[in-house]
Amino acid sequence: MSNLPNCPQCSSEYTYEDGMMYVCPECGHEWSQIAENEAESTSIKRDANGNELQDGDTVTVIKDLKVKGSSLVVKVGTKVKNIRLVDGDHDIDCKIDGIGPMKLKTEFVKKV
């Protein structure tokens, strides 16, 4: 069984490799393997203002956030240093002084 991707135009499962290209024999569509691999590996995370975030960045919280299962609140303006981007429901793993390890969503932070 082949692990090649289906055709992005007609969804055919009969794609094959031709050099550095994928080819669909049903509709004739050709696309680059490099573009396919980059699309799978790059997931750009952006803050509330649309700035691109990277591992190690410092961000500021833009909304009061209640900590689930606790009476603690992360206040507006809290600075979070050395973030780590992850895939999943929450995009940022970090440690907040006075609270501890947390997971945040990128929509509630802005890059400093």
From TrEMBL:
Which InterPro entries would you find in this protein's record? YjdM, YjdM_C, YjdM_N
Q: Which Gene3D superfamilies match?
A: 2.20.25.10, SH3 Domains
Protein YjdM C-terminal domain location is: 46-112
The residues covered by the Protein YjdM N-terminal domain are: 4-32
Q: Which Pfam families match?
A: YjdM, Zn_Ribbon_YjdM
Q: Which domain of life is it from?
A: Bacteria
The family this protein is said to belong to? Belongs to the YjdM family.
PANTHER family under this entry? PROTEIN YJDM, PROTEIN YJDM-RELATED
Q: Under which name does UniProt file this protein?
A: Protein YjdM
Q: What is the lineage of its organism?
A: Bacteria, Pseudomonadati, Pseudomonadota, Gammaproteobacteria, Alteromonadales
